Amino acid sequence: MRIAVIGTGSAGQALASGLRRIGHDVVTGTRDPQATAARDDWNGGALATYAEAAVGADLVVNATGGGVSLAALAEVDLEGKVLLDVANPLDFSNGFPPTLTVKDTDSLAEQIQRAHPEARVVKSLNTVNGAVMVDPARLPEPTTIFVAGDDEAACRLVRGLLVELGWSDIVEFPALDAARGLEMWLPLWVRLMSTLGTADFNLKLVR
Amino acid sequence: MRIAVIGTGSAGQALASGLRRIGHDVVTGTRDPQATAARDDWNGGALATYAEAAVGADLVVNATGGGVSLAALAEVDLEGKVLLDVANPLDFSNGFPPTLTVKDTDSLAEQIQRAHPEARVVKSLNTVNGAVMVDPARLPEPTTIFVAGDDEAACRLVRGLLVELGWSDIVEFPALDAARGLEMWLPLWVRLMSTLGTADFNLKLVR
To answer: Which residue of B has its CA nearest to A104?
Structure first.
């Protein structure tokens, strides 16, 4: 599958590497490809502008920071595309703990869907960090990942990708507005990261 | 230990029964004890008014609905008391899914603490339903429970009670404002309850 990963932060880089490793044709979209390529922390891989990256892609992944997602995606033609949104609307401008720029009665995923009614937005993977997203087996036992979206075929495509990445316990919400709960998990996630001293953790849903 | 459980809903009733079962002297506080005693769903046990219930209690548990917690607790003398807050600020007035009356930069637990600076508020058990609160072994494997509070001795007292109830994986946040994350877990919890068709579930923190 041809996949465009939008965003070059730790989540974007982990996703690009992880998706390439399982055989996908991945290009990363960034504002300025030359500047990204010159960064010390850039781990390599094909780069293109936001607009170019998505051309011909079967799947576009939003891995930009939540605060800049709408601006970055405004440059991308998402007509008919499945958009996997892994971003979180965290605002660190007032220090730790971060707050959420959108919550409760709305979510970043829904904001993106409203800005791009021609796309089919699916929220997933935002509940874990980049390393766990693409390698759930790094944790000592299987954990749970969530999928939320209004479009059944788009959710199915994302679910298939999750299985390829090694996820086995996948809980699906057939409505994009369930992204509210998935994004509101982050304040607890951030506290846990701070208390545990690691981002290598996830929840397992026991039922 | 003498424990006052404030609130007669399903969480309050489960807590009163569960705490009595492990040997505590429990009285339930309610607005109108006679009216509560006459209710079809009242499972028995000592009743008193909000104000009377807390007299002589070593621990007061807020198990009222989040929307009425501040009003109910206003009738209780919490001077020097440890207050275990298990409530959630859920607002169902606009139907399902509920929204939160307080979130992100504040929490119900912190509102209660500000209203009762003479009390030592600890947030715990709000992340599971009443049946699981007092009987974590009803789930197929051990799961995780959280404790958040500013007062170390108060947190220790609550932790001891959790161990008595059967909780083994207890993650403690040494700050009451971590209650924000614990309360913001609820939107995901509510969706899960709806999707799974049961409230008999919890998260296990895998790290």
So the answer is: B99
